From TrEMBL:
InterPro entries linked to this entry: Ketoacyl_synth_AS (IPR018201), Ketoacyl_synth_N (IPR014030), PKS_Beta-ketoAc_synthase_dom (IPR020841), PKS_NRPS_Biosynth_Enz (IPR050091), Thiolase-like (IPR016039)
Record keywords, A-Z: Phosphopantetheine, Phosphoprotein, Transferase
A GO cellular component annotation in the UniProt record: plasma membrane
GO molecular function, one term: fatty acid synthase activity
PROSITE patterns: KS3_1, KS3_2
Classification via SMART domains: PKS_KS
Start and end residues of each Ketosynthase family 3 (KS3) domain: 34-334
Top-level division of the source organism's lineage: Bacteria
Protein name: Polyketide synthase
């Protein structure tokens, strides 16, 4: 009955169509179980898409967002190169007579910015904010946006059993750590394991907190772990997400060899499930969801974006290559 009343309210407030309400009733009322997890909040930041609305518009338009490094970010990237690659710059003749640098930046899926952060809003001092890796700053911003989308902004989650699960791939060098290394606050500001705990600390969250690295699947596995924690009643609410941020990519100096160069595709295009697939390209982005048991979400009148019926994490054994999927039967996941 609570589910029906909730859907009726959504229709009455014109937040849900009658047709969609009937479809949800057919799907949920017949199969809703005690382990269903509701997605009650979402937020994201992606190349050429500062929020989920812009991201969806890009998807609908079939817009590719692989591009040159935005001009607004080049000064910071050039400053880093000037600080840490002086020998390479001189040896390869990349310093112009006027002192400017001759650098080509690789095409990637770049965010518009990673250096703007309202430290005062999050109660972080200026010096500490400067020593924080952009990954920590961006995650705080997007996680809070997801909480606001769920209706839990302000201090509504402070002191509550809320879990934090963050997926991030550590394959790239921690460039920012080299910039902030001389400041003692950089120990926590650039330590990858602190990423989830930073949010828990600032918002006084009392649930489990962990950073997960399973390479490309890190974000999805963080959602999987969040669902398990909710089902085992380790927390009443969970914040889960994944992020990738490279800050910049310059053309490689002759003294360096990027480990992942061999799997990059020459035309900056990823062709997933396509016979023309020859490699990958890299991009920045972050997505965060707020999760809650479905029955609790309905009871509390939360807006439900989607329902997670089941999750499972597994490996594929020994396929053709360690980075390739296998033709595992669907029944193996049931």
């Amino acid at each position: 009955m609570a589910l029906k009343e909730y859907l009726y309210t959504q229709v009455a407030e014109r937040r849900l169509s009658v047709a969609d309400a009937k479809q949800y009733l057919r799907e949920l009322s017949t199969a809703a179980g005690p382990h269903d997890i509701a997605v009650i909040g979402m937020a994201g930041r992606f190349p050429e898409a500062p929020d989920l609305t812009a991201y969806w518009d890009n998807l609908r338009a079939g817009r590719a967002s692989i591009r040159d490094l935005p001009d607004s970010r080049k000064p910071n990237a050039l400053d880093f190169i000037r600080r840490f690659h002086q020998d390479d710059l001189r040896r390869e003749g990349r310093i112009n007579p006027d002192g400017s640098l001759r650098i080509d930046f690789a095409r990637r899926g770049y965010l518009d910015q990673v250096d703007q952060f309202d430290a005062a809003f999050f109660g972080v001092g200026p010096r500490e904010a400067a020593a924080m890796d952009p990954n920590q700053r961006v995650f705080l911003e997007v996680a809070y946006a997801a909480l606001e989308d769920a209706g839990y902004g302000g201090r509504r989650v402070h002191g509550r059993q809320v879990g934090t699960f963050v997926g991030i791939d550590h394959v790239e060098e921690l460039k920012y750590k080299r910039l902030a290394a001389k400041d003692p606050l950089a120990v926590t500001g650039t330590w990858p394991g602190i990423l989830a705990s930073r949010l828990a600390y600032l918002f006084d969250l009392r649930g489990p907190s962990m950073v997960i690295d399973t390479a490309c699947s890190s974000g999805l596995v963080s959602v999987h772990q969040a669902c398990r924690a909710l089902r085992q009643q380790e927390c009443e609410l969970a914040i889960a997400g994944g992020l990738s941020s490279f800050y910049y990519e310059a053309t490689t100096f002759s003294s360096e060899q990027r480990e992942l160069e061999s799997i990059e595709f020459f035309d900056d295009t990823v062709r997933t499930f396509d016979r023309r697939a020859k490699g990958t390209t890299w991009g920045e982005g972050i997505g965060v969801v707020v999760l809650k048991p479905l029955d609790a979400a309905i009871r509390d009148g939360d807006l439900v974006h989607a329902v997670i019926r089941g999750v499972r994490s597994t490996t594929t054994g020994r396929p053709t290559g360690s980075l390739l999927p296998t033709r595992m039967p669907r029944s193996n996941f049931c």
